[in-house]
Amino acid sequence: MPKSILVLNGPNLNLLGTRQPEIYGADTLPDVERKCRDAIGEWGTLDFRQSNYEGELVTWIQEARDTHAGILINPAAYSHTSVAILDALNMFEASVVEVHISDIHQREEFRHFSYVSQRADHIIVGKGVAGYVEGIHKLIQLIGS
Ligand code: DQA
User: Fold this and answer.
1) CB of 88 within 8 A of CB of 58?
2) Of these residues, 68, 78, 100, 115, which one is catalytic?
3) Which of 50, 84, 86, 95 is positioned for an S-S bond with 115, CB 3.0–4.6 A?
4) Is the distance from CB of 41 to CB of 83 less than 8 angstroms?
5) What is the pLDDT of residue 2?
């Protein structure tokens, strides 16, 4: 398997930076991508994507089975609703790290449960966009082990 990590961002994360900055901070999604690229360094390649569509995320996860050694995913609102994304991740045999910018466990009750957490090998919440950097490092560690 190529040394390649797929970073997937779910709905509304395209508006990071302007979207509720008091919760999600001032960094934009391109800022997050840059931080992820710095974090992966020379280790391998990074594929950074965002979609507002559940089915597109499902298709990308299916395709990643043959192309990527790990997935870092912020499923955004689909975390709390999507059995389809969980099912797709259950077919992905390599490592999966779930990241949330905010602490979903300290927010509204409907955010406390994440379907994706049923599959994730590691979960990072409430560390802001720094959680993505931590997630990349964790994936590199999991893939290497
Ligand atoms: C989020 C938390 C979700 O509850 C929310 O729907 C998001 C972003 C986070 O990164 O904190 O869109 O995944």
Assistant:
1) yes
2) 100
3) 86
4) no
5) 77
Active site residue 24: yes
Tell me the three state secondary structure of residue 139: helix
Domain hosting 78: range is 4-143
Total domains, the chain: 1
C-beta neighbour count of 114 within 10 angstroms: 22
CATH number at residue 51: 3.40.50.9100
Average pLDDT over residues 120-143: 98
Question: CB under 6 Å to ligand 1: residues?
Answer: 12, 74, 76-77, 79, 100-102, 104, 111
Relative to the CA of 126, which ligand 1 atom is closest? 11
pLDDT, one tens digit per residue, over 40-65 is 999 999 999 999 999 999 999 999 99
